[in-house]
Amino acid sequence: MSKIKACIFDLDGVIVDTAVYHYQAWKRLANQLGFDFTEHDNEQLKGVSRVRSLEIILAIGGVTKAEAEREELATLKNTWYVDMIGKMTPDEILPGAKEFLIACRDAGLKTALGSASKNSMMILDKVGITDLFDAIVDGNKVSAAKPDPEVFIKGAAELGVEPSECVVFEDAIAGVEAGKNGGMKVVGIGQPEVLTKADIVLTGLDKMTLDLLDTL
């Protein structure tokens, strides 16, 4: 076995895909404000905080709001989003994710979640895989956004391993950079031409094996 002792997973786009629910909630908000928000527009929000996402959407619609009202709008969007993810089922786990998590644990590797989402626990509970993680570090435990490596560094600390002994699984450019900034190996989930800083890039965890970990 290689020196890898732990795998740290981002949630969105790696284990489940809640991006569709974020998009539907933002689109509903834009429509309520009197303009449309397309899937093409939505590309600008990938890996971006809720506050910054709202700023981008208001700019797209040419709408100006005072700070208090912006906070209300962000909260409203989140309420709709939480309502949608509250209906998630185990069928929404991405292909191979649960199987690879189980394989890691069977091989004696530690597993952690490293996600900016404050709704991580709810999502993991809904899809039934909370018990496959030794540590869960989410938006309730960290203050710095990726590409700051705080979420992954905390994950390693909670697992009791060194950053150099961890592999991060990420689908966003900022997330890949966060893993590298933390001194970790990174497996990108997505397109090689986009996630250029990852050590390897796969289309999903269904393509990941323990043997591949040994090559990192």
From TrEMBL:
Class of the enzyme per the UniProt entry, highest EC level: isomerase
Active site (UniProt): 10, 12
Co-factor remark: Binds 2 magnesium ions per subunit.
Pfam families found in the cross-reference section: Hydrolase (PF00702)
Binding site for Mg(2+): 10, 12, 170-171
Cofactor: Mg(2+)
Record-annotated site: Important for catalytic activity and assists the phosphoryl transfer reaction to Asp8 by balancing charge and orienting the reacting groups: 115, 146
This protein's name: Beta-phosphoglucomutase
Organism name: Mucilaginibacter myungsuensis
Gene of this entry: pgmB
